Amino acid sequence: MSSTLEKLRQAAAPPPEPPPPKVAPRPERDSPGRRALRRFARHRLAMLGLVIVTLFVVVALLAPLVAPYDPIATSWARIRKAPSGAFWFGTDENGRDILSRVIWGARASLMAGVVSVVAAVGLGVPFGLWAGLAGGWVDAVISRVADAMLSVPFLILAIALAAFLGPALENAMLAIAISATPIFVRLARGMALEAKATDWVEAARALGNPPWRTALRHVLPNIVPPLLVQGTLAIAEAIIAEASLSFLGLGQQPPSPSWGSMLNAAQRFLTQAPWMAIYPGLAIFLVVLAFNLVGDGLRDALDPRSDKNK
Amino acid sequence: MTPALEVIDLAITFRTDRGPFRAVQGVSFAVDPGRTLAIVGESGCGKSATSLAIMGLLPDSARITGSIRLAGQEIAELPPEPRRRLRGPAMAMIFQEPMTSLNPAFTAGEQVAEALRLHRGLSRGKAAAAAVAALEQVHIPEPGRRAAQYPHQLSGGMRQRVMIAIALACRPRLLIADEPTTALDVTVQAQILSLLAELKRETGTATVLITHDLGVVADQADEVVVMYAGQVVERAPAARLFANPEHPYTVGLLGAAPRLTGGRGRLASIEGTVPDLMAPPGGCRFAARCPFAVTLCHLTPPPLRTLAPGHQAACHRAPLSAILGEAA
After folding, report:
1. Which carries the bigger pLDDT value, residue B22 or residue A4?
2. A16 and chain B: CB distance < 8 Å anywhere?
3. Contacting residues of A for B145, CB less than 8 Å apart
4. Is A18 helix (H, G, I), strand (E, B) or coil?
5. Beta carbons within 8 Å of B136's beta carbon, 6+ residues apart
6. In A, which residues are within 8 Å of B166 by CB distance?
């Protein structure tokens, strides 16, 4: 009996002071985007990727200022010189500075990557949304075309299209964009199908939203996260594709520098002048790795299930 | 007075791989402005299909026959575009799941404002202000602050209030509430129901309340339609239905509802299961589960008969008072 009383007394005693909350109270307008941004900022590898990407973008934008030499100026006096204080990355078979060419080549690579993916998203997402939301024969036609394009390997399709369009950087970008489009059609269609079954899309329809408005104002904002992830990863692929097309002579045309065409020139001198291959190869490797890191980080940040790790 | 909504002999058939599925047959009812009609029945009895048919939201695989009149206007045969224009200003719907019926990508205020911009053509700024006023009207405390919050920051009851604010933003003549309180805590249920009743008094909106909760019906409804296996089995003013049920299924439903007064015995349950609507039985669809069934019940489907003014039941053995008297 007394022990029960003791327990009651303990229960009635004021509880100890609660520890101060460790995290700052959430800001009022705690949008899903902001939460994702916070998670992304905590992702170390993704931030590293972002730093590398930013570095390349800045260097590419400031190419005329940061490149020590003219990237297309040839000189018989300095053919295939090894890296030195004057030429950090060495020179190529025409005596051009490889550092300057790598810097200018970043423009072609990044531009090809970003422009072609933006075009692929702009082309693929509307068709994907349309297919997913409309269903029926619209879906059948769009999906079969996308399937047909996906049945051809990405690079083979890009090479075929680039060869058909003619060798030029713009055509290479167009070829890459078209080859990357079906991925976004499929992604947007799948997400639209998923969204179509949700209660909030049903509620939007019950409010009298016309189909296009349901698609753009209600479904599209909710499929941005996976599109962002896929888009970032696709940039990495597009950069490899541009390098491959340029390697084959279907992209950036000489004498304009491009990492792919530099590798092509380098292959004849791999044993005598390995630096000709190493530096553009390293640039491709770094940029592609960085975009992949950013893409993975975005995926972790935008996927609510990754919350449990934090 | 023209009823706000009149449904006459509605039938809904879904095309399926196994053949036509007759989800709803011969359903008729009417709701006057400012009144509440409850549609009661267990899962799969066709009450949700009926509400989606009224809204015009059934999938393409559904075929509708019969008549749906909104304030006297026939809408069952309307093409999709004019039909869509009715959703929002003429009729709106509240869904069962407030947790998932709001768009996760937008704030509560944005979603109310969206409805106002869509149907009233308000500017962005005016719609935002009107949205806060609408949230205040559904008794959300600190509406200005709540308007800036996302659905994940709101509780279930709060979200259902937002859904109601969205549905009523355009002052619809008809509001369909499909199990509006099923997913909520009991205390919150009462709040939401009194809110709906208050808004109905203020706006004169006709309400169709879909539910399986007879407590909600007793609280809210003026008239009740009881559905079983896709058909109306009984239709009566709410008070009369509770006092004097005339269909054995209704009697069973009332027996299955827990009461505060009365004994502490086990709740009555209805034996058996709902018949397969792909191959419905020939006679009364409830016959197999009915304690009062006679041979006639298994052979001929009972018509809906008027037993008293405003009170109809589809039962061969109605009025049941005689049989219930015998049993006692």
Report:
1. B22
2. no
3. 28
4. coil
5. B143
6. 203, 207
Task: State residue B37 phi and psi, 5-degree precision.
Answer: -110, 130
In 3D space, the residue among B45, B93, B111 whose CA is nearest the CA of residue B253 turns out to be: B45
Angle at B92 between CA B89 and CA B97, to 5 degrees: 150
Q: B313 has which bridge partners? A: B234, B305
- In A, minimum Cα distance to B56 occurs at A206
Specify the pLDDT at position B264: 54
Supply A162's token pair. 């680039």
Burial string for B59-80 (b: 16+ CB within 10 Å, else e) reads eeebebebebbbbeeebbebee
Q: Give the separation between CA A196 and CA A298, rounded to whole angstroms.
A: 24
Q: Does A188 touch chain B (CB under 8 A)?
A: no
What angle, rounded to 10 degrees, do the helices at A32-41 and A44-61 form?
90
Distance (Å, whole) CA A83 – CA A80: 9
Burial class (CB in 10 A: 0-12, 13-18, 19+), A94: middle
Cβ neighbours of A200 in B, within 8 Å: 100-104
Q: Ranked by mean pLDDT, which of A204-218, A277-291, B98-112, B207-221 comes out on top?
A: A277-291
Average pLDDT over residues A265-283: 91
Q: Would you call A208 and B87 a contact, using CB atoms and an 8 Å cutoff? A: yes
CB contact under 8 A, B149 and A28: yes
- Please answer yes or no on whether B93 and A206 come within 8 Å at the CB atom: yes
Q: Are B320 and B248 in contact (CB under 8 A)?
A: yes
pLDDT score, position B265: 56
Task: Give mean pLDDT, residues A11-28.
Answer: 50
pLDDT confidence tier of residue A21, bands split at 50, 70 and 90: very low
CB pairs A-B closer than 8 Å:
73
Min Cα distance A295 → chain B (Å) is 21
DSSP letter at A217 equals I
Q: Among residues A219, A56, A51, A43, which one has the least CA distance to residue A131?
A: A219
Q: Which of B207, B216, B218 is nearest to B240 (CA)?
A: B218
Q: Which candidate, A223, A154, A213, A218, places its Cα nearest to that of A188?
A: A223
Angle A258-A102-A292 from CA coordinates, rounded to 5°: 85
Task: Determine the distance in angstroms separating the CA of A207 from the nearest CA of chain B, rounded to an integer.
Answer: 5
Q: What is the ipTM of this complex?
A: 0.77
Q: What is the pLDDT of residue B209?
A: 92
Q: Which residues of chain B have pLDDT under 50?
A: 328
> Among partner residues A198, A203, A207, which is closest to B118 by beta-carbon distance?
A207
pLDDT given for residue A77 in this prediction: 83
